[in-house]
């Protein structure tokens, strides 16, 4: 059977939503959870369009809120499939907030959602390959590979740190930190 490939452009997805007062926190800014939910929706739509089937979120990388989003802003979420594995897809999402009155558009965050395609029985499904149409598509694909390598290195290093951590040796590192060790804490 010949492998199927789909171009990046066929699954590019944009979701735009008006930020209403019920989305705001006590500080009058939009809850981060609202934005995460919208990002998950656009990631699903983008991944499902490419895979041609149901997809689930398995990880989210790099959710840094660069600027607050205000009530009354239009939030634009632009998503594209940046990388595919055998059953997984990495969806890159760029989030911007537009002030309708002034027309000013601010970049609020970029994030990467890893999605996995599912068969009707719940098993993982093979996804089509990805046709890279532009230099940006190639760059994004290569960046996704690099992020995956760095993530694996980080996990490995973190596992090593956890297994080799010697509290007594590292106690001096707490000297300039904003913490205090309660009496008997090291004996519990």
UniProtKB/TrEMBL annotation:
InterPro entries: Cytosol_ACT, HOTDOG_ACOT, HotDog_dom_sf, PAAI_dom, Thioestr_dom. Keywords: Hydrolase. It holds the Pfam family 4HBT. SUPFAM superfamilies: Thioesterase/thiol ester dehydrase-isomerase. One of its GO terms (cellular component) is cytosol. One of its GO terms (biological process) is acyl-CoA metabolic process. Its EC number is 3.1.2.20. Belongs to the acyl coenzyme A hydrolase family. NCBIfam families: unchar_dom_1. This is Acyl-CoA thioesterase. It comes from Xanthocytophaga flava.
